[in-house]
Amino acid sequence: MLRWIDVLTYARYSNPEPPRRVNLTDQEWAAQLTPAQFRVLRQQHTEPPYRNAYCRSYEPGVYVCAGCNSPLFDSTTKYHAISGWPSFTQPLTRSAISYFFDDSHHMQRVEVRCNVCGGHLGHVFPDGPAPGGLRYCINSESIRQLPPPTDAR
């Protein structure tokens, strides 16, 4: 389980090594993503609060990066944080997310990106529920939800 000290250590020193890397040009990303996804994932924009696809959705499944389909979060870690954006307590794996200090907009935050393609996902804060205390505040445009696997009996 990741804790705030782990997030700060990754942001300060070195992020976990991803299982693979996806490197595309801006033109290739623009052709693959919707304009809204491109603004969020590649230009670090933020979508409006409460008017996004996954803010109030609690269906079971796995959330993947909208850019490269890398698994990021499980729906069991999603909770209602009243922030206006989907919130999660933990990433699916330690190597799913990369962390960077962000002092834009006169705030000090930790930005989270997909560790495979570098797409901007949102930010992580130390005010989440126990036991980890993390709140990953994620843009819906940066993720897609896949349904849980069906039982093939």
Automatic annotation (TrEMBL):
PROSITE patterns in alphabetical order: MSRB
InterPro entries hit by this protein: Met_Sox_Rdtase_MsrB (IPR028427), Met_Sox_Rdtase_MsrB_dom (IPR002579), Mss4-like_sf (IPR011057)
Entries under SUPFAM superfamilies matching the protein: Mss4-like
EC number: 1.8.4.12
Keyword Ligase: no
Gene Ontology molecular function: any one: peptide-methionine (R)-S-oxide reductase activity
Enzyme class (EC, first level): oxidoreductase
Biological-process GO terms, alphabetical: protein repair; response to oxidative stress
GO CC term (a single one): cytoplasm
UniProt-listed Pfam families: SelR (PF01641)
Ranges where the MsrB domain occurs: 26-148
Keywords: Oxidoreductase
Catalytically driven reaction(s): L-methionyl-[protein] + [thioredoxin]-disulfide + H2O = L-methionyl-(R)-S-oxide-[protein] + [thioredoxin]-dithiol
Record-given protein name: peptide-methionine (R)-S-oxide reductase
Gene source species: Hymenobacter telluris
